[in-house]
Amino acid sequence: MKLYGGMDLHSTNVVTQLIDEGDKVLYRKKQSCDWDQILKGLEPFKDNIEGIAVESTYNGYWLVDGLMAAGYRVHLVNTTAVKQYEGLKSTDDDSDAFWLAHLFRLGILPTGHIYPKESRAVRDLLRKRGQLVRQRTAHILSIENLYARNSGDRLSCNAIKCLTEEQIQQQFADPNVALAIDSHRILMNALDQQIQVLEQALLKQAKLNPRYRKRLTIDGVGEVLALTITLETGDIGRFAHVGNFTSYCRCVGSEKPSNG
Asked: How many CB atoms are located within 10 Å of the residue 127 CB?
């Protein structure tokens, strides 16, 4: 008898359902995020489980990795593409877990790529760099706005990055304005230092990757962009055609014509 699993994962618990080929629920359990208990509950059914659909959430690494290490076939659900019947009056964690298992049984479950565990940490480090860059930019814009609002002057990005505490105090007589701008300057510089630390660590690892070195030969692609393409793409062989990769990069428009 074939069984199909669905897991609705939350920050503190996970709801698991196993259904048969007739959509009959043979196992239903709500458990804390305790790997040993989850594995113990699945063990009696292991030989019959065709696979388990796991909801893609921010805290899903441990569950996906654990299931795969235990020998289960895991399907990472693309939650943005999963829709239940809109006429339903109410849903809960049980119905969500059942729906994932049901779609998996029908062969219409929208899934995402499970990024290899051994490469995931360096990719996430690159994403952390991007987060810090966005925060640094926010501080630069705040300094620019404060300057324009209180003096009528406009500063370039390079001028803002070179600002000193003394220059700010000389420019603004009001100590509150000076303190506000200097606070942004201090945080901007701290972020800049940490971004450089992350970049050095990333580039040191990337230089060992032949795919990264090839991408540096593309016109207009520098170190950071080559890093992004390499680490976000992973194994490009997972894309069947050029068009699939282009669509993945959000470079393909969406069209929904009707009657011409």
From this structure: 12
What's the rounded Cα separation, in Å, for the pair 68 and 100? 18
SS3 content of the chain, % helix, strand, coil (to 5): 55, 15, 30
Q: pLDDT by residue (tens digit) across 215-242? A: 999 999 999 999 999 999 988 899 999 9
Residue 236 DSSP one-character state: G
pLDDT at 77: 93
3-state SS track over 90-120: CCCHHHHHHHHHHHHHHCCCCECCCCCHHHH
CA–CA separation, 15 and 30 (whole Å): 4
- Per the CB < 8 A criterion, the answer to whether 8 and 100 are in contact is yes
Res. 87: pLDDT tops 60: no
Domains of the chain by residue range: 3-106, 116-206, 207-260
- The CA-to-CA distance between both ends of the chain, in Å, stands at 48
Dihedral (Cα; 35, 96, 75, 17), 10-degree rounding: 50
Q: Which class is domain 3-106?
A: alpha beta
Q: E-assigned strands of 3-47?
A: 3-9, 13-19, 25-32
Strands 13-19 and 3-9, by their bridges, are antiparallel
Residues β-bridged to residue 185: none
Report residue 85's pLDDT band, with 50, 70 and 90 as the boundaries. low
Task: Dihedral sign for Cα 62, 198, 221, 131, please.
Answer: positive
